[in-house]
Amino acid sequence: MSRKQKEAMQGIIYVLPSFILILIFCIIPIFMSGYFSLTEYNVMKPPVFIKFANFQKMFQDSYIIDATKNTLLYVLITVPIQTILSLLFAAFLAQKMQNKAGGFLRSVMFIPVIASSVTAGTIWRIILNTDGGMLNNILNFLHLPSVNWLGDTKTSLLSICIVAIWKNVGYFLVIYYAGIMGISKDLYESAQVDGANKIQQFFEITLPMLKPITYLVVTLGIIWSFQVFDLSYLMTGGGPGQSSVTLVMSIYNSAFKQYRMGYACATAMFLLVIIVVINILEDRLLGGKKEEKR
C-alpha cells in the first residue's frame, strides 16, 4: 500500500464514525419520514399505505395552514431584524470599541446564546407577564396601559420573535465581527484618501466583503427560524387560539399527542420542502456560494 493510499485510509477511518452517526440519525430518518408520510401509522398498529391522503388532508387543515402562516411570519420578522442588528453592532464594536470595553460588551451580548431556550423562555415569560411583569411595570410607570403580551392574538407571536432576536443576535454578531476584522485596513485607508466617509466605506467596502458571511448568517437564521418550537411551546403553548402555533409544534402535537405519526411525517416533509425551496431562492438572490468559489 502506497503512502497516499495509507493517508486516504486514515482519513476514511477518522471520518467514518461521524459519517455513520449522520447516516443513522439524519439521512435514514429523512427517508423513513418520506415513507411514513404516505402511510396511516399510529405506532400501535403496522403502517397502512394510503398514498398522498395525508398531504391532501394537510392542505385542507386549518391548523396546519395557520401554523404555516405563523412560521413564515416568524421567519420574515426574525431573520432580517437579527441579521441587520448583528451587522450594525459588529461594525460599531469593530470600528469604535476595539478595547476591553468592547470585549466585555461582546461577552455580555453572547450570554443569551449560551442560555438554554428553556431558561430564556421562562425568564421572558416572567418579564412579559400581564400582572406584575417587568415590562408592564415600566409601561405603567410611564403612565401607559399594560399590554397582554402573551395572551393577545396580536402580540403573542411578536413577543416570541423579540425573544428569538434577543437570543440570536449575539451569535451572529460574533460571526460578523470576525468577518469585519478580516477585511484589510488598506481598503479603508484607500477609500479615505479618495474622500469616502464612514457610511460610504460601510456600503462600498464592508457590506460587499461580508457577502459570503451574510449568506451564512441568513441561511442559519432561516433554518433555525423554521425549526422554532421551544420558545413558542414554553411561552404561549401555541396560543391564544392558534396565533403562535408553528409547523414544528404541529408536528409535535400530531406525533406525540394525537399519535398520528404518518400525518406528522407528512407535515415534516412539507416543512423540508419549504426550507429547501427558500434556501435555493436565497442562494440565487445572495449568490453566496458563487462568491465563495470566486
Please, could you describe this protein's structure?
This protein is mainly alpha-helical. The protein contains 14 helices and two strands. The protein has helices at residues 3-36, 53-58, 62-96, 100-114, 117-127, 134-141, 156-181, 185-193, 198-209, 211-226, 230-235, 247-257, 261-286, 288-293, and strands at 39-40, 48-49. β1 and β2 (48-49) form a beta hairpin. α1 (3-36) crosses α13, α4 crosses α7 (156-181) and α10 runs antiparallel to α13 (261-286). The longest helix has 35 residues, at 62-96. It is globular, with a radius of gyration of 23 Å. The protein starts with a helix and ends with a helix. The mean pLDDT is 91.
Q: Tell me the radius of gyration.
A: 23 Å
How would a crystallographer describe the biggest sheet? 2 strands, antiparallel
Structural class: mainly alpha
Order of helices and strands: HEEHHHHHHHHHHHHH
**Mean residue pLDDT:** 91
In the predicted model, the low-confidence regions spanning at least 5 consecutive residues are none
Query: End-to-end distance, in Å?
Result: 37 Å
Portion of residues within helices: over 70%
Number of helices: 14
Based on Cα principal axes, name the global outline.
globular
Cross-sheet strand order for the largest sheet: 1-2
Strand content: under 5%
What is the count of β-strands? 2
Q: Can I get a quick summary?
A:
The chain is mostly helical. It has helices at 3-36, 53-58, 62-96, 100-114, 117-127, 134-141, 156-181, 185-193, 198-209, 211-226, 230-235, 247-257, 261-286, 288-293; strands at 39-40, 48-49.
